[in-house]
Amino acid sequence: MKSCLQNFFVVLVRTRFPENIGSAARCVANMGLGGIIAVSPENPDREKMLKLATHKAAFLIENMDIHNDILEALSGFNYVVGTTSRTGRGYRSPVITPRTLAREIWPIAENNRVALLFGPEDKGLSNREILLCQRLVRIPTASLSSLNLAQAVMILAYELFVSKNEEPETEETKRASIAELEGMFDHLKEAFIRIHYIDNENPDYWMMKIRRFFNKRGLNSNEVRLIRGFCRHLLWIAGRYGL
């Protein structure tokens, strides 16, 4: 089970301060997670990151990938956990606690790469970024809902670390990658708009329930290809009958 911790990567999106990336890297090293990835950081100054990472986590900063596109950053992952301090119906529901996540994630992490997604310090993840997540986590607090970025990373990483010795009841097969899933969702959206199943005015809103339906089932690559084959045939029929 210990090796499964290496399947977890912290992905920091649009982080404002390089020092926070360094502090987060130190948390990743302390808890034995696989690594850290940055997406469009405002200031990608590795020297400032290294000061807070300390020498023990310096290797994470030195080897850290920096991407300009979140889909590119997540393309090699099979499961994405998003963090949010806000709740509500629609994009940001349902949410679970880090402890609940730690109890349920191990069957998935056994054979899949898992991204732990953290948004910028002031705004958090956007609705578009939330849509990429299969699970949403919120850290409960007594009053103030937001935490320092490194604190949030440490809490999530700690819960995973302390639960690592709990054997999973079942072991999942490898899931489809995020890139494969997003291709499937785009294909479904195109087909559903074409046959007027969803509203063309705000298709992403109508796709939320469809995303949740498939995300709960943990599709593998063969199943994604099967669904995309259905979409291709549906679009062919729509074209044949002038839809």
List keywords for this structure.
single chain; 243 residues; alpha/beta; Alpha/beta knot; Helicase, Ruva Protein, domain 3; 2 domains; 6-stranded parallel beta sheet; 6 strands; 47% helix; globular
Please provide a brief summary of the model:
This protein is 47% helix and 11% strand. It is α/β, with parallel strands linked by helices and 243 residues long. The model has no long low-confidence stretch (mean pLDDT 90).
Commentary on this structure:
The protein has helices at 18-31, 46-53, 58-62, 70-74, 98-104, 106-109, 127-130, 149-162, 178-194, 203-217, 221-240, and strands at 8-13, 35-39, 65-67, 79-83, 114-118, 135-137. It has 243 residues and is α/β, with parallel strands linked by helices. It has two domains: 2-162, SPOUT methyltransferase, trefoil knot domain (Alpha/beta knot); 178-240, Orthogonal Bundle (Helicase, Ruva Protein, domain 3). Strands 3-2-1-5-4-6 form a six-stranded parallel sheet. The termini are far apart. The model has no long low-confidence stretch (mean pLDDT 90).
